[in-house]
């Protein structure tokens, strides 16, 4: 259909947003590449970091996907009380601050945790959560739910009639229906999780470290904060970018799944499989999620009433950063989605491949000659968080805007609704729900972020996750647990307020 | 007067030609589905530009101008009201797209709602109205605007037969009374016979020149005979 000859909405905001994303992702990369000191090349420690980064991501993704297969299959074919709540809970780790989850895992699997107490009482040796298996454990905690949601969607996409047909023919369901589905869905799921694990700085920061368990991102952080070796940090940032770019391109080619999809609430009637095994898997997965989360609450409550004033100051800074970041992110997503087109689609996925630490290193190198990085810690954090959350906001807003245009575009064209008027009277009122969701998601992601802020902030300008990390480092565990509970409560509250705001009084 | 000056509307391999002038109170567009009735209307409204020829209204060339700048109001098969705006606001859009209405304009909206039988319903949202009332509200918006040509692309198709007749009568009593020309797409030849002054038959890639409805149904040309069966 031919477009009307006049531009209906100005292209300037989209161009600005696009330029900002390009500057932050590719621009910072140029800054990093220029400063990279190739010199003697990569040291043995650098190679060890690369190897660790790859191997932990590989094992994390593998374990997450392998465990997700029986859990998703059990959820797909069993109906039980609390199934809906459990599936909702599977979405929770996505907006859960990483450092809070780590605290919960420490309370279960760490020194003096539930598991080691149990081991100790029956005379087994203590296990340590730090190092390779700790990093993998945390990644599985975050990504097993994600993988389960992806695979559950795959299972529920198989039409119920086919199961009925297979049952009546007494045909093997696994080989006939499930194996082809898994072959289509598993590679994409694996690669998405692999990519997430490549860029999960906060897990490496809290559970990794030392010569045997340092990721490239952690090495960048150490090069800047401890050695102030900017040339080496820049070189490592280039390495990290190359790793991410390769993984992202492969993932983009293979992936066709969307874990945010709705419709996970039905159960397909099945005639195969063991009930006992299915419920064993479901229970195990639920406990693996619920016990650490409960520990965050149980351990957090005592500390909550005794928090140092610095934690409250950090909480206020975090809320400010989260709000600015959310508004910026959704504003950019709105501008880009209204513009539409292929270029926007590419700009929309660029941040997925970007590592927050690489972007942060680039910005550090750019601003360092002119100002103290710590003076810019909060604005830079808000900006980088907004950019990294952009793909998720776009994924929520783009389809909504497309359907508004499909339903009401002609009427609006005809009535002369253009520019700001079109936005105010048509688009914004009709995308309130996805916009509320996107705002909430961006705010919660920014609230819990522990990445760029760690590069930039000094002692006085910490956000809540960084303040919490420092409390943990200083072995003030009760205060850290209290701060963790405050952090997760604030994150969920921000998400809930935004999401709720989009739903109340929305005319569908 | 609406003029199709050697117009060709093309979409992929589909082509529709039109070359005639049109002057009537109500003109019905009839023909088989997929024949191009809606395409013809989209060509007048500016949603679809002709690949050849020009569309004119009273010597003013419409081709190349945006839908909002044409002397045309169009009602579609559905989604003629914004569900998040009140009926008053929906009607007010016909006067000012940014809804900054003067007191006089607000009065005009209220008067027009009275006129179409929606007294006191202006504060409601479309979902709180019946299908027939929603159609009346959409007509009210067309009525308040100053544009002389109205295109109706089967907007009453979802209504029951009695309600549809009511609406077609209302079209004549309000829109035609206000001096507007109405072009209406319909798949019901009976509607065309009873309510239209002229009929355009769209079939086999051609929009035929309008013929008075008495004449065309008394003595149907081969294409119409094939369609009526």
UniProtKB/TrEMBL annotation, chain A:
Keywords, ordered alphabetically: Cell membrane, Membrane, Transmembrane, Transmembrane helix, Transport
GO cellular component: plasma membrane
GO biological process assignments: transmembrane transport
Organism: Yoonia ponticola
Domain (ABC transmembrane type-1): residue spans on this chain: 50-498
CDD domains named in the record: TM_PBP2
PROSITE patterns on file: ABC_TM1
Classification of source organism: Bacteria, Pseudomonadati, Pseudomonadota, Alphaproteobacteria, Rhodobacterales
InterPro entries for the chain: MetI-like (IPR000515), MetI-like_sf (IPR035906)
Gene3D superfamilies: MetI-like (1.10.3720.10)
Membrane-spanning segments: 52-72, 84-109, 129-152, 184-207, 233-255, 276-298, 310-337, 344-370, 376-394, 437-457, 477-498
Localization (cell): Cell membrane
Protein name per Swiss-Prot or TrEMBL: Thiamine transport system permease protein
Automatic annotation (TrEMBL), chain B:
Keyword Nucleotide-binding: yes
Pfam families, sorted: ABC_tran
SUPFAM superfamilies: P-loop containing nucleoside triphosphate hydrolases
PANTHER family hit by this protein: SPERMIDINE/PUTRESCINE IMPORT ATP-BINDING PROTEIN POTA (PTHR42781), THIAMINE IMPORT ATP-BINDING PROTEIN THIQ (PTHR42781:SF1)
UniProt keyword annotation of Oxidoreductase present: no
Organism, as annotated: Yoonia ponticola
Keywords: ATP-binding, Cell inner membrane, Cell membrane, Membrane, Nucleotide-binding, Translocase, Transport
Superkingdom of origin organism: Bacteria
Residues covered by the ABC transporter domain: 2-229
Designated name of the protein: Thiamine transport system ATP-binding protein
GO molecular function, one term: ATP hydrolysis activity
